UniProtKB/TrEMBL annotation, chains A, B:
Binding residue positions for Mg(2+) 3: 35, 80, 218
Binding site for Mg(2+) 1: 52, 130
Residue numbers binding Mg(2+) 4: 35, 50, 80
Chain sites annotated for binding Mg(2+) 5: 221
Name assigned to this protein: Thiamine-monophosphate kinase
Residues reported in the UniProt entry to bind ATP: 129-130, 156, 220
Function: Catalyzes the ATP-dependent phosphorylation of thiamine-monophosphate (TMP) to form thiamine-pyrophosphate (TPP), the active form of vitamin B1.
Kinase recorded as keyword: yes
Molecular function terms, GO-annotated: ATP binding; magnesium ion binding; thiamine-phosphate kinase activity
Regions annotated as coiled coil: none
Gene Ontology terms describing biological process: thiamine biosynthetic process; thiamine diphosphate biosynthetic process
Keywords: ATP-binding, Kinase, Magnesium, Metal-binding, Nucleotide-binding, Thiamine biosynthesis, Transferase
Keyword Metal-binding assigned: yes
Upper classification of the organism: Bacteria, Pseudomonadati, Pseudomonadota, Alphaproteobacteria, Emcibacterales
Length: 329, 329
């Protein structure tokens, strides 16, 4: 018979037992005992919602440590809140565990440990969720809830021709980290692997960008693909320089030995850095913000009236023009 | 390379194209163009959140029509809002589509049609979401968002010994409907199949129960399993009578021919009716509410100080005592 709970029910109770401490006993989530959580937004704040789904061996490796899978799933969603300038409040979790999974209880325990650590780090808590079994791969979906002052949410749609284009942090680390995890590069580089496992949602940065920027989003699919969204919404193009794209010293060393992986800088994805545009007159304030936060905010190009997206190399070629994975619009 | 989007990117754009009309162009979801939705709760209201995940061939049949899968997924979540006494505002959707799925575009189109119909029926809209591909079965997760006056959310934890136990509507229809869909009973009974495909979230009832009831939840796993939650939270038991359990005339006719399926009334699940407890003095008001709503609200037993859960048959046997799937606590 098709039933909600095909894993033995007592095991579901056990899972609930592990998850309950992630919620508080009183409102909003009532220790997960009720059908739903009740949340009153902070005084004068609007709520922000985002939802990302992750599938094993598509968005993470199924043998990744459980606590890191949990943290990546949460942080990917927190990165969306960061891109809106919101501060996190909590999250709901749907977890589909493979029927054939071994050592499920130990896995769940580690998974919950990862969430508990990140709840403390980012100031949020579990608001509710659902655990089911699946004949397919481990699948997770998180809905993150944050707060923002009404009218101060950062949007993707305000870029103007001539605006500068910026990215936070460095690009390509995560995609290179995955090359190590897939044994395509050896020996392991812990810094880059860690960047793949543990994205840093730029929450503080997002909360400080209001008033300085014209458009903001987070980079999940790679700079080249993601800037297309900003361009489409404003009817503009983007002209960027490859030599300006920020690369960590660790990634730089690897790319010297493996130059064929250079394009991971702009199309590797999983960066979870903020991509934003800002008027030229904000340059000083943005660099001052970068210094205050000790976080590189690198100017990589400009928005253009011509609706073409280009990353120019030093010999004047558009690196995106021969990129099969990339489409002009 | 492991990437967020393993279905061809242009197909994802197409999917976004179908989903966009389910969201409004302006706040909260900005036509799905941004990283997150921004929602200001109705004046003086708290927000209610719930999340349910559904996996093909666990929670629905993979060959069920796409619009019915969409509607069931949404309604299962709206049922949780109903159990809290909340009114729906919107929902976020994560959809994992099988890589091998054929006619994906046509399927998505029908899926979206189902959502659009139910959005109009229940007064809610798409707030955001994510579409990914999976090597496993079709998997969905919906997070529903509703509103409730602070302090007026219905809870599971307030039952007192001596309180009456009620259920709305009729039980077992959906589980019998599934027997037809699985060809365990023939010929098809459209009423019962429809009850399986299209649960009726008791939103209006939930909004009218505040002040009358001591505990409320919705029945998703079956009466016998779900009342356990109310009993556990109040440290009480429940004494119910099999002859009082409400059964539709359609289900009654089938059960005469197939008496072995009688236990689906209390352990079939997928009913999505409300289960609630109320003090004896509220009986008249509850029956008056039932008449006003033209919805049966049937008194099926009482909460007891002894922490045993029983459904008594006419010869005085507890039908749950030999039920392997049921555990006392």
């Amino acid at each position: 018979m098709i039933r909600r709970k095909t894993i033995h029910e007592s095991e579901f109770d056990l899972i609930a037992h592990y998850f309950a401490p992630l919620a508080e006993k009183h409102s909003p989530a009532f220790g997960l005992t009720d059908d739903a959580a009740v949340l009153t937004p902070p005084e004068g704040q609007a709520l922000v919602f985002t939802k990302d789904a992750l599938v094993a061996d598509v968005h993470f490796l199924s043998h990744d440590p459980a606590h890191l899978i949990a943290q990546k799933a949460l942080r990917v969603n927190l990165s969306d809140l960061a891109a809106m300038g919101a501060s996190p409040i909590g999250y709901l979790l749907a977890l589909a565990l493979p029927q054939q999974m071994t050592a499920r209880e130990a896995w769940v325990k580690q998974f919950v440990r990862g969430l508990a650590e990140d709840q403390a780090l980012f100031g949020c808590r579990l608001l509710g969720g659902d655990t089911v079994s699946t004949t397919g791969p481990l699948t997770l979906s998180i809905t993150a809830v944050g707060a923002v002052t009404p009218g101060r949410a950062l949007r993707r749609n305000g870029a103007k021709a001539g605006d500068d284009i910026y990215v936070s942090g460095t690009l390509g680390d995560s995609a290179l980290g995955l090359k190590f995890l897939r044994h395509e590069i050896t020996p392991d580089n812990d810094y880059l692997i860690n960047r793949y496992h543990l994205p840093q949602p730029r929450l503080e940065l997002g909360q400080k960008l209001f008033g300085l920027v014209s458009a903001t989003m987070d980079i999940s699919d790679g700079l080249a693909g993601d800037i297309r969204h900003i361009c489409q919404l404003s009817g503009l193009g983007a002209s960027m320089k490859a030599e300006l794209l920020p690369v960590s010293s660790e990634a730089g060393k690897i790319l010297e030995s493996f130059p064929r992986y250079k394009k991971l800088i702009w199309n590797g994805g999983d960066d979870y850095e903020l991509l934003f545009t800002a008027p030229v007159q904000d340059r000083d304030q943005i660099q001052s913000l970068a210094r205050d936060m000790s976080l590189p905010l690198t100017r990589i190009g400009q928005m253009t009236a011509a609706p073409e997206i280009a990353i120019w190399n030093e010999t004047g070629d558009n690196l995106l023009s021969d990129d099969q994975g990339f489409r002009h619009f």
